[in-house]
Design a protein that fits this description.
Layout lengths: L11 H21 L1 H20 L3 H30 L6 H33 L1
């Protein structure tokens, strides 16, 4: 039964369904997006490094979090591209712009990884 605004109750069933939908999204990204798979492989390498090279919880969180951010942005970029492809393969200026902006967002997230890792690790070696 919905409340006065139209929202359904947010019980354990809703949390379970949301978790299932999230796993379906991750599975779809894994099956259909080679960039996502590559970034997961990189995470498998960089996550242990982040935990090993970080000297405290904050550094570990920043090192690992910057890598997870790339995956999150890649998922959003893939969602944008999927919606655009849904409407047809013909070129449209706005569709191209949206895809380019999604790609740029992934690029910025990757730059963030370089900056975070560099700011944390380079002073130790210089």
């Amino acid at each position: 039964m919905a409340d006065g605004i139209g929202h359904r109750p947010r019980g354990l069933g809703r949390i379970f369904r949301a978790t299932v939908w999230s796993w379906q999204g991750l599975r779809a990204a894994w099956l259909h997006e080679s960039s996502f798979r590559l970034e997961v492989y990189l995470l498998v390498v960089f996550a242990p490094l982040a935990l090993w090279l970080g000297v405290n919880g904050l550094e570990r969180a920043l090192l690992l979090g910057s890598c997870l951010l790339v995956l999150s942005v890649e998922l959003l970029n893939s969602a944008i591209e999927t919606v655009i492809e849904r409407y047809g393969p013909e070129h449209h200026e706005l569709a191209g712009r949206a895809k380019d902006m999604g790609s740029a967002a992934v690029f910025v997230a990757m730059l963030n990884v370089l900056v975070v890792w560099g700011l944390i690790l380079l002073p130790r070696w210089l």
